[in-house]
Write the structure tokens for this entry.
Amino acid sequence: MIDGKKTMLSGMQSTGIITLGNYLGALKNWVNLNEEEDIKCFYGIMDLHSITVRQEPANLRKSARTLLLLYIAAGLDPEKNCIFFQSHVPAHPQLAWILNCYTYMGEMNRMTQFKDKAAKHADNINTGLFTYPVLMAADILLYQADYVPVGKDQMQHLEITRDIANRFNGIYGDVFTIPEAYIGKSGARIMSLQDPTKKMSKSDENPNATISLLDDKDTIMRKFKKAVTDSDGFIAYSDDKPGIKNLIDIYCAVTSKSVDEALKESDGMGYGQLKEMVGEAVVAELVPLQERFEALSKDKEYIDKIIKENAEQASYYANKTLRKVMKKVGFTELPR
Ligand code: AQP
């Protein structure tokens, strides 16, 4: 709770350009929250999380700024919401260190995302990758978040955040708000266009598997044309047909139509026509966003101002919580 409003925190890692999956599963839902006057929203550009995987410095810098621009171009209002770079608020790693000391190895060992990510980056299984759920807990708890919008894949992280917060509160009194999952209107889970049994991920090495938010019209249409489907030759919405199901899910998430409506519209179509219909809907959604992105890219002064003001705002709230935590733990206050 901040200034009498419930608070919400979310964010994305700034690692490459975000995908249609990140957009439909998260960002588009956040934009809908603009309307909720009684929720104060914090959105992080989670660059500290990005370095759990080796990053080229210039790319990391560029990805982080691009992500900020995409947040705004998609419709997040930076005057109303606090949109900040995680690395600009040192309270994040400071609280994460403290919380590390209140988190058990056994708990971390149970994190399925660590297993997945470790398998993906077998040459660099660093301790940051292992403990990043604790940094995520710090991200959430610093802003006393009441809500965290989560997909199924993130539920385990919210659970551990709640466990750590409850443990800490149990020792020191009510320091942290215990966050709850916020279930948005559409919880679309978008799958890879090349392997529809796997989620669409910005780090996928096959560029045809993902739609990047900055892909141009021809690239989007070409990628949909190449999307893997099946050899049945008929359109149905079923788990047995993950490629077709994914195309329909994308269409519904982009147009806000129901599955029934999508099936009616695609009645009698071949797979090629369905892919074209979905591709065109995605283009219609992304082109205006890309135009806003282009315009924002040219306004360095405005973006710099947003970065600075929001870093100050985020730090103000985060430091308030951190000071309380440090006092409770027993650290010596700096004499004034
Ligand atoms: N395919 C997806 N469908 C729906 N939602 C998705 N999200 C990610 N992929 C899909 C949601 O996007 C938000 C930001 O995710 P993140 O950047 O913190 O990390 P992630 O979940 O690991 O996303 P990626 O794209 O798979 O990143 P990489 O490849 O870097 O690991 C989250 O809310 C997530 O649920």
The two ends are 28 Å apart (CA to CA).
